[in-house]
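Reading a protein record of the kind used here takes only a little practice. Each token is a code from a learned vocabulary of local backbone shapes. With that in mind, consider the following protein and its fold in token form:
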Amino acid sequence: MPKIITAIPTEVLEYYLQNVVPTVWITNIDEQVKGFYQYQVDPTYHDEKTFLAMCHEKWERHNSNQIEGHPV
């Protein structure tokens, strides 16, 4: 029987932040984060606004390094 997702594990959010954010279009991040937070997230983890800001910072840091030719 298939399992129904009722909560997003924080490990998934951390993986997304560290490994997926640098490779997606910046315009897709808002929509994807909103999708994560439609489900229950551990209340001790970052709220949606904070997590979204962290994603934007990670994306900008990664991609500005790529543009300048520096390794990430």
User: Anything to note?
Assistant: The beta strands are 7-8, 40-41. Helices lie at 10-20, 26-36, 48-68.
